[in-house]
Structures are given as C-alpha cells and as structure tokens.
C-alpha cells in the first residue's frame, strides 16, 4: 500500500493511502471546483424564494448529490414544500406532491392498471412517484401499506404494476415531511423503514429578522419570486458520480465506523453512562450514508477530499433517526441529539 503526505491549497496535511497508487488531490480539487460551480447558482436561486433555512437547503443538496432521500420534521409553515418545489425549478425536473392521508391507497402513489372499455384491455396508469422529485407530505398520516409502497420505490428505484416493472426517472429524490406536534391519527414510520432515509433534518422557526422579510415578500405588490432553471438533470447525474470520486482517507473511514459503533457499544468508547440510555444503535446504513453525505458536503465546499469536520457536520442528521432511546432516557429527559453530541465529543477525532 502506498502512503504519503501531501499539502492542499490551504496548507492542510493529508495522509493518503491507495492500493493502486497515489491520488492526485490537486487535480481532483480542480475538477471538483469546476464541476461544483452550479451549486452556487442553485443556492442563489433558492435564496430568492427561501428566507433563512440555509441548513435545510444545504441538506437538500447533500441528499441530492449523494443519491439519498431526506426526511424533514418541523411544524407547519417552515417552507418544507416550497423548498423542494424551488429546487425542482432550479433543475427543471418533474415534481409531484402526494398529500398522505389515512384513506390513501398504495395505487394512489405508485399507480395501477386501468381497464378501457373502448379497447377492452388494461393499461398502466403511472402514479405520482414517477417524477424526479417527489414530496411525500406528512408521510406518517398514511397507513403502513402506503408507506411501504413508497419506501420500496425509494430503495429499488423501480415499481411493479400488473406484472411489469418500470424504472423510476433519474435523478430521483424523495422528500418526506412529518409534523412532530400532532400524534392523533398518525402512523409512525417503523425503524426499518425510516432507516431508508439518508438524513433527517429537524427544522426550527426562522429568526425575527428573517420572518420580517418573509412577511414583506408575501404581502408586497410584486409577484412572489420563482426559481429559474440553472442546471440540467444530466449535470446532477454527473455530479453524483464525481461525489463518489472525492477522496476519503482510511482514518476518516475508521472515524465514521467508530462514531456508529459508539452508539451500539458505548462502553467501549468511555461512554458507559449511555449504555442504559440507548435501546439500539445506528445501523450499517448509517456508516454508508455518513460517508456519502460527508463526500457530498466536501463537494459543496469545492474540496476533493473529506476532513473530519465534514463528518461531524453531517453526523447528527445521519444518525438522528437511527438511534432508539430507552425509557430511562425519556425519564431523564435525554434526547437523541444529546446522545449524538456526547458521542461526537468523546470519540477521538483523527
């Protein structure tokens, strides 16, 4: 194995190891700086419509570039729907919205076979899932069968209708929302299904000055701003491939695995007090998602390599929905965020 130390343009020393030879970080940086130029254009367009919520916009881009799906949790009115519509407008892709309700059927999401008396034959009617960007609004309001139908499409990237299999379009992104303050008439996502989301983002209210600007934009005589197309879908597909090329050192990989393992066996990482608070730790999907999200975060910052700060930036959103707490944790008012922060503060950073 070849191992050497190099310096990037900021003076950061990087240990790089490769079984097939050295990685040209300088060339990779130049390539990514060129290919990631569209990110700034998309961000500027999104800022025309979305006031504040910069973290949500960044996480949307991370999920899109890392080929994952995103779960947004927040009270009504925090621009969850507006954000994905604005992003779809920037990329000029098909967008569909499904309002999940208790009477929704799987066929209402994926599609069904429709009989035509004129032709005396069945034909396929595709559902709203056949779009590039799909908003599953209040996903926890639909029964388990509907949730499973959508989540299967998310995982397999295909849908079977009447014995025929249809591929979903590329790029494909599902953004699901859920309201944390209403529990009556809801069907919480099982752990095995919520695990399919790459990241979960918890939204908070905007700041006072941001809300003043929101009010001003919505009550003025000028028409409400809309995003314009600045990126082609092919650019997103190519960017996804380049994100995979972002260099990740073995020490960073080990750090990711250590963070995940610390949620399963906290006593091995000097976190004995968490042993009785964690019911189950993060799954292997957390390790994969954290690695891909960290690469996408480095891409957003026009960097060809992953640093520990990239991992720490995405770790809470990747692990938030993958850790189960015990009744002891609830009794002590310990939240998942508290557990993740303690893990990040304790596990040694490379």
| SS elements, strand count | 13
Helix/strand-derived category reads alpha/beta
Between the first and last Cα atoms, what is the distance in angstroms? Answer: 20 Å
- The global form is globular
> Class of the largest domain in CATH?
Alpha Beta
Count of folded domains: 2
Order of helices and strands: EEHHHEHEHEEEHEEEHEHHHEHHEHH
How large is the count of helical segments? 14
Average pLDDT rating: 85
Assigned CATH architecture of the largest domain = 3-Layer(aba) Sandwich
Kindly report the name of the CATH homologous superfamily of the largest domain: P-loop containing nucleotide triphosphate hydrolases
Question: What name does CATH use for the topology of the largest domain?
Answer: Rossmann fold
**Largest sheet report:** 5 strands, parallel
Largest sheet strand order: 4-7-10-3-11
As residue ranges, the low-confidence spans are 1-21
Q: What proportion of the residues is helical, as a percent range?
A: 40-55%
How would you sum up this structure in a few lines?
The protein has helices at residues 25-35, 37-49, 54-65, 80-91, 107-110, 144-156, 191-194, 208-219, 233-245, 250-264, 284-300, 308-319, 327-331, 336-346; strands spanning 2-7, 13-18, 70-73, 95-99, 111-116, 121-126, 133-137, 158-161, 164-167, 173-178, 199-202, 278-280, 324-325. With 350 residues, it is of the alpha/beta class.
Compile the SSE list and pairings.
Layout: E1 2-7, E2 13-18, H1 25-35, H2 37-49, H3 54-65, E3 70-73, H4 80-91, E4 95-99, H5 107-110, E5 111-116, E6 121-126, E7 133-137, H6 144-156, E8 158-161, E9 164-167, E10 173-178, H7 191-194, E11 199-202, H8 208-219, H9 233-245, H10 250-264, E12 278-280, H11 284-300, H12 308-319, E13 324-325, H13 327-331, H14 336-346
Parallel strand pairs: 3-10, 3-11, 4-7, 7-10
Antiparallel strand pairs: 1-2, 5-6, 8-9, 12-13
Helix pairs in contact: 2-3, 2-4, 3-11, 10-11, 10-12, 11-12, 12-14
